[in-house]
Amino acid sequence: MSDKRRERPPVPERLPVPIIDAHTHLDACGAEAAGDVAVMLDRAEAAGVTRVVTVADDLAAARWAAEAADWDERLYAAIAIHPTRTTDFDDVTRAEIERLVMGERVVAVGETGLDYYWDYSTPESQQTAFRWHIDLAKRVGKPLMIHDRDAHEDVLRILAEEGAPDRVIFHCFSGDADVARRCVDAGYVLSFAGPVTFRNARPLREAATLVPRDQLLVETDAPFLTPHPYRGRPNEPYCAAYTLRDLAELREEDVSSLAAAVNATAERIFSLRSVTASVTKSDN
Fold first, then answer.
1. Which tens digit of pLDDT belongs to each residue from 241-275?
2. Residue range 24-49: average pLDDT?
3. Could you give the count of Cα atoms lying within 13 Å of 141 in the half-sphere of its Cβ?
4. Residue 190: enclosing H or E segment and its boundaries?
5. Is the confidence at residue 283, as pLDDT, over 60?
6. pLDDT at 277 over 80
7. For residues 204 and 216, what is the distance between their CA atoms, to the nearest angstrom?
8. What is the H or E stretch that residue 189 is in?
């Protein structure tokens, strides 16, 4: 890898209206302690990405995300076990996730769902865990954040069979226009990450033009999926500003107007106005 490929993209000009990075992994970006989180969130704020949801994918990450969300008022957490980590989804894990998800600054149950691209967990174990997380989201009254990779039909089928929670987010939406229409018709929210900016992602870019503003979110999924024109370089929450601007151009909308709409959707879906602003500092 060249030195350039190791560099973070430049922090872009600040958005005229602030937005929320609806899905990132600050721990995977290298954050460990409160100071690390503050540095990353400062960079994001400089680009107009003023709030961030950091997402867990295993039990250790869940514990870290729940704790980190108390370090900075700009940070929230989502808690679940990633579908590729569900081979050992036992009662102890379930109990811990259920405890952690009750945290006041935990704003979603996620990411959960199905991933048929990797073979780390069987489809059966993934589906069992997915159904459990659906039930958990309904019991605690928090939105369900879905990971769906190469599994559109099974994800939609299981949601229908179980009865979807009131609020469902398809993180890093990866479907085409047909899947997008079906999700929109079901009332689900679609969150778009860096791949929607890739010029060869025509089906995905077409899908993004069909989503109503009140069902649209923007995310980074950092440190992965850095948006065009910095594809392949390290990603961080501030890069959501690149995706927002690209989406505005794609949808032929004003940047300020789209940013305001995306921000309002995030506040509504995550019930952010009801989340306390009190935080604690950590020297860990």
1. 999 999 999 999 999 999 999 999 999 999 998 88
2. 98
3. 4
4. strand 189-192
5. no
6. no
7. 14
8. strand 189-192
Spatial neighbors of 153 by CB under 8 A, at least 6 apart, are none
Joined tokens for residue 62: 């869940």
**Cis ω on the peptide bond leading into residue 111 (within 30° of 0)?**
yes
Strand ranges for 32-143 from DSSP E: 49-55, 75-79, 106-115
Indicate the Cα dihedral angle 45, 250, 196, 255, nearest 10°.
10
- Residue 281, pLDDT above cutoff 70: no
Two tokens, residue 205:
């870019």
Q: How many CA atoms lie within 13 A of 213 on its CB side?
A: 16
Structure tokens of 115?
């991933």
Alpha-carbon Rg for the chain, nearest whole angstrom, is 17
Spatial distance between the Cα atoms of 167 and 144, rounded to a whole number of angstroms = 6
Q: Tokens for 52, please give them.
A: 């961030």
Geometric angle at alpha carbon 213, from 209 and 215, rounded to 5°: 95
